[in-house]
Amino acid sequence: MSRQCTHYGRWPQHGFTSLKKLRPQSVTSRIQPGSDVIVCAEMDEQWGYVGAKSRQRWLFYAYDRIRRTVVAHVFGERTLATLERLLSLLSAFEVVVWMTDGWPLYESRLKESCTLSASVTLSALSDII
């Protein structure tokens, strides 16, 4: 028995108005600021686009490698201002070691804390902790 297609070459229209109302949290509720210590956090950014590659969007995030949880995230341009927004969300958390991909803005903003770039392996991390 064949199923007949009713949209005639066009995708069916869905009412995704509920998705527009979503307000996802930018900071996790699984880790309590001030009481839980994040031993090793990875900070990175991901590039994507909406509709056309000229409409770039960047996702900056901090990831707790031990709990396997995204601690905080922000969307914006790949600028210091967006990084500052992420760091302000993370200011309530105590992070022992940061892991980054070596982007100079990470290095300049995290210079007072312990930072490892992508060239350092996790086995070397165990020597530090």
TrEMBL record:
It holds the Pfam family DDE_Tnp_IS1. The keyword Nucleotide-binding does not apply. One of its GO terms (molecular function) is DNA binding. Keywords: DNA recombination, Transposition. The keyword DNA-binding does not apply. It comes from the Bacteria. PANTHER family: INSERTION ELEMENT IS1 1 PROTEIN INSB-RELATED. Belongs to the transposase 27 family. This is Transposase ORF B, IS1.
